[in-house]
From TrEMBL:
Removes the N-terminal methionine from nascent proteins. The N-terminal methionine is often cleaved when the second residue in the primary sequence is small and uncharged (Met-Ala-, Cys, Gly, Pro, Ser, Thr, or Val). Requires deformylation of the N(alpha)-formylated initiator methionine before it can be hydrolyzed. The lineage of its organism: Bacteria, Pseudomonadati, Pseudomonadota, Gammaproteobacteria, Oceanospirillales. This is Methionine aminopeptidase. Residues 12-244 form the Peptidase M24 domain. Monomer. SUPFAM superfamilies: Creatinase/aminopeptidase (SSF55920). Binds 2 divalent metal cations per subunit. Has a high-affinity and a low affinity metal-binding site. The true nature of the physiological cofactor is under debate. The enzyme is active with cobalt, zinc, manganese or divalent iron ions. Most likely, methionine aminopeptidases function as mononuclear Fe(2+)-metalloproteases under physiological conditions, and the catalytically relevant metal-binding site has been assigned to the histidine-containing high-affinity site. It comes from the Bacteria. It catalyses: Release of N-terminal amino acids, preferentially methionine, from peptides and arylamides. Its cofactor is Co(2+); Zn(2+); Mn(2+); Fe(2+). Its EC number is 3.4.11.18. Substrate binds at residues 79, 178. PANTHER family: METHIONINE AMINOPEPTIDASE. It comes from Chromohalobacter sarecensis.
Amino acid sequence: MNIPIKTADEIEKMREAGRQAASVLEMITPHVVAGISTGEVDRLCHEYIVDELGSTPAPLNYHGFPKATCTSINHVVCHGIPDFAKKLKNGDIMNLDITVKTADGYHGDSSMMFVVGDSIQGGRLARITQECLYKSIAQVRPGVRLSELARTIQQHAEDNGYSVVRDFCGHGIGTGFHEDPQFLHYDGYEPSADAELAEGMCFTIEPMINVGDYRTKVLRDGWTAVTKDKSLSAQWEHTLLVTATGVEVLTARGDEDMSFLEG
Ligand code: MF3
Ligand code: CO
Ligand code: CO
């Protein structure tokens, strides 16, 4: 495992990439309402990334992925493919995952949940999943091991009766979309994979939490990952920088209350 340590200059470029990814989610939020299709959500994000930000959407053509963003509704865990025929309806929950690659080659990766209209079960799942993300981010600082963050996520999910997806993970990020280390969100680390965080590392935390069983399968389109038991699934993701004293959330949005980082 070779975990890159970013230089001051690279960190500035990561900050810009992170801000850009956050700005896409801020831009699209008012558009995500019942009746819009996931294809239209994707089109608006794609246009904004290219025309307003001067960057590229990293998912497009990534290992053959056909669209600019991932839109994962209800029992879709991740990597849902945007589709003009798939309209959001009242009670749906959707994860929208945005990765931008800036003109100088750095990636910012973030995703969030949208609860369309009302869904009591979906709203609770989305909230607990965001808490899993925030509780683990709050622990990030040099010297902490990945497994400590993972245990925090797993504990909070399971305390609330949910399960943690094992088949997809967080990752280092920089000029590469997916760099070392792999970040498992559950306590399943081989000793050699249980990296210790150090100042200058950038990585994502992106827990996928299911109402039912943790197992997933990929549909015949080769991308869409769903829960095997068809139970609801939620995910939130941020790109992080490990600082000397803690963490900087590179993809923080204006709507977020980051006070969990204090104290
Ligand atoms: N953005 C996803 C992640 O968090 C990866 C999407 S890969 C794609 O790592 F090909 F599906 F777009
Ligand atoms: Co990611
Ligand atoms: Co992502």
